[in-house]
């Protein structure tokens, strides 16, 4: 049965103004809506017109090629693990990274994860290897620590200092947690990889000094998973489980950290960001909904759809969470997400978000200046 249609959609007058609020309804299309593929169905009326003040890099997103899945090149022993270091300091460094095999392989890994969940609900059966189960158990342990380290009473809106205590425990016990995952294959040669893999893990959960979290930290978690794939701990057959079990658990953990310790958005675009904290669940979630028989991008405006299906689809879960934590009209506090709801199908949303992730995250010096390079994610001179 098709989800009920939203009855509160504003009518559009012939003059190009909304009959409810009088605001203009005709303006320049959003980056994703501008991609030529197909026109919206004739009976679709957007909740609001695409935004007038577009992000400055919309043309770069439109012109960017759609990333493709890449098979992770697995390293063979003898390994030469090394402490990863920062290499990106300027736009020239960004360009060098983007022209390297390391970049294509890393972004291709994210595309492969996205494709693995295509058409699947979160609860659908999937292969759960001992490695995937161990990672989920580790994230459950980190969730439990939040209950053991309650926030202190503070007057400020953001930045509860108890987060630093949580992060201190992570620094103290994190390496032993990683070793439990690494040594599952009973391969002692992997023990030394902690010197390289642990820094990505520690940077996956926010910054303890600034008490903030953003897409750069989320990218570090993806890089940590990629490093596990590089040494053969995570295999291609695990990708569905990595998204449906590991990343869903990671998202649960990060939302709890954000809410309990009031983490500040790190480098937020403000109202013109896709989301204050996350990007990847929108990519994975839109892939889940590709070719869905009933739900369309515009369905995010139907509260019944969000209530009944957000537990199964990450994209809807993200929208429901945004509406929970932000007050006011959705079109005003999340105009970019509102614009994307006017895209005619989920396949176009997914490809557009992959392009946007490349441009808005992986090409941004303020984000990527913290990214680390070692033997698993190599810096090509």
TrEMBL record:
Reactions this protein catalyses: [protein]-peptidylproline (omega=180) = [protein]-peptidylproline (omega=0)
Location(s), subcellular: Cytoplasm
Chief subcellular location: cytoplasm
Start and end residues of each stretch annotated as Disordered: 1-49
Pfam families, per database record: PTPA
The EC number(s) this enzyme carries: 5.2.1.8
Keywords: Cytoplasm, Isomerase, Rotamase
Any single GO BP term: mitotic spindle organization
Compositional bias (Polar residues): 10-22
InterPro entries tied to this protein: Phstyr_phstse_ac, PTPA_C_lid, PTPA_sf
GO cellular component: cytoplasm; nucleus; protein phosphatase type 2A complex
Coiled-coil region: none
GO-annotated molecular function: peptidyl-prolyl cis-trans isomerase activity; protein tyrosine phosphatase activator activity
Extent of the signal sequence: none
Family as reported in the entry's similarity comment: Belongs to the PTPA-type PPIase family.
Function of the protein: PPIases accelerate the folding of proteins. It catalyzes the cis-trans isomerization of proline imidic peptide bonds in oligopeptides.
Name of this protein: Serine/threonine-protein phosphatase 2A activator
High-level lineage: Eukaryota, Viridiplantae, Streptophyta, Embryophyta, Tracheophyta
Gene it is expressed from: LOC130494553
